[in-house]
Design brief:
The chain is mostly helical. The protein has a domain of 81 residues. The chain is 83% helix and 0% strand. It has four helices and no strands. Helix 1 packs parallel to helix 3. The radius of gyration is 25 Å and the shape is elongated. The chain binds zinc ion. Zinc ion binds next to helix 1 and helix 3.
Length: 116
């Protein structure tokens, strides 16, 4: 992802409307580009700052909230990747179990005993 695309996605990121694929690319770029990281933090602080202004919460730490927001997004993407790996593992196990059962089914059908 390049800086222009990243900056176009800042609004949707803050609204929480990015797809998982967009979020993954967004976070990868965020880790590697300090300029975009600053841009996102400024946008986050302005928008979140306006939100908490209405709630009158003077003790609210915007920088900490920003860091937590990024950490939460990274944890979410890591969880989704692990879920995908787990699904592939289950699919692979199911495939080989089915293949083995099919093999033994036809092996026994052929009249040959497995013990000999
Ligand atoms: Zn950038």
């Amino acid at each position: 992802m390049d800086c222009v695309t990243f900056r176009k996605l800042i609004g949707p990121y803050l609204e929480g409307s990015l797809t998982d694929e967009e979020l993954n690319g967004f976070l990868c770029h965020l880790r590697s580009c300090p300029e975009c990281r600053d841009e996102l933090e400024i946008n986050y602080i302005v928008i979140e700052g306006l939100n908490i202004l209405d709630e009158d919460r003077s003790d609210y730490d915007l920088s900490k909230a920003y860091d937590q927001s990024i950490r939460y997004s990274e944890r979410y993407i890591r969880f989704k990747k692990n879920l995908l790996i787990f699904r592939y593992m289950i699919d692979t196990i199911a495939f080989w179990a089915l293949a083995a059962m099919t093999f033994f089914y036809f092996y026994t059908l052929s009249g040959m005993d497995l013990l000999y």
